[in-house]
Amino acid sequence: MKKILVFFLFVSFLASGQEIVKVDLSSPRATIYSHLYFLQNDSYQPKKAASTILGLEEKLAIEKAIKIKQVLDGKGLFVDLNRVPANKSYKDTVGYASYERYVLFPQRMPEIYVEKVEGKWYYSSETVVKIESLYKEVFPWYVQKLQNIIPVSGHKKILNIELWQFVGVFLMLLLAIIIFFIIKKLAFFILNRIQQLVTKNTNLEIKKVLKKLAHPISLLITLTFIDKIFPSLQFGLTTNTWFFLALNIAKTVFWIYVFLKLVQVLMSIYSVFTERTHSRLDDQLVPILHNFLTGLVIIVGIFRLLTLFGVDTTTLIAGATIGGLAFALASQDTVKNLIGTIMIFLDKPFHIEDWIESGEFSGTVEQVGFRSTRIRAADTSVYQIPNSKLSEIVINNKGLRLYRRYNTNLGLRYDTPPELIEAFVKGVKGIVIAHPETRSDSYNVEFTGFGDSALLIMVNVYFKSLAWGTEQSSKHRLHMAIIRLAKEIGVDFAFPSTTVTIEQFPEKKSLDLRYNINAEKIDTSIQKIVSDFSKENPTDSI
To answer: Which regions span the lipid bilayer (predicted)?
Structure first.
């Protein structure tokens, strides 16, 4: 009697255990669980699994349900039910509008998703329509034919892997190696031709980078080939999951490498271009752009790797945005300097090696960095100016001058005769015209006024060279020629002095300076000085 009672209890327990799992379409998790559960080997009931598909006859619905699972298994897409929402009114908020749907794998298989219809969740009509093309993509036409020609001995298992699968893996790797070497040579040839057509440059450094770029490109194409072929070998879900995870990690790493090399190629081409321009500010932009683009590639690559491990990058980006905002508020000066850097490169108020002046500093621009600009003063000391400040203050850029203006006053003694003043002015004009580094079409040499101790002769000239050192050398030659002219015609330069008149004292006479005002002699002296100056500074030496 006890045995019969135990038997009935056991039967009732089994019956109640079987009734625990029913078809449930109340939420995304319930629908997906019902579909996958009733297609497992130990709970295989395809009719119940087909109830997750709406609007098809039973036979066709069963076929669609099986193919959806086969596609997921073939691509190694393991459904973690703990991540699937159990909310009956779940809405997908990604995009411009929200929909009552749930996409199982938004990145790798966005075509397969469930949606809510009349209070219940089913696989979407789009999924049902596209599952045939997805199935053919994962399991090409030749898969079924291969299954038919594989002998019985080919299905023998070693380490739980069938013999034909070992052969398939070997052939796949052999073809992958052949494809790799062919694509590598072809990719380098195409990249080199494009680079030559676009830039018309045969730089050896660029060729070396292109060779390094062709390597990961060929690897990516090879991995894509393996990605297409591997599902045809029909390994289990666990094997496919781990294999495609490793494959996607490798592809992401190679893509990062490709973009890093692409940045290097672009920066090499840009640096060659900047070397041909007169401005050196764009030369300074090369390392800044290189560092920025490299960091951007690495950050995007890391986010991509995180998605492969199931990390929700949307939440991560939102957190990073909030954290970045807090960091920006805490470091406003750094952000202001970065904006100032951008404005300097956009407006280009100066270039590298320009001499700039402001109320607080003056010097030559040596380097423009992310945060500050380095300026070398005339005494070789260094100013480190924050870019936020530099982009706001008024700057006098001497480097943008067309010519270097030089203005000075020459003081002659008050007792200089008018004839010699005219002769001196005429001689200085001749020297300016003969000077190889001054503009002969724009200058002024005139008797402009009476100073405290001298008659003032204004000399206003423009030097052609913008270099500070060349300007000083040009001044030296100009000054020496003027001194020789004054000596030759007998003109004296004045200096601050006091004259005591003694003419009214008995038996005293004033100092009587004798000036030679012979016109012929003066013209001869001027011609001699200008001729000698012209021989010392030929115009073709510019």
So the answer is: 163-183, 213-233, 253-273, 285-307
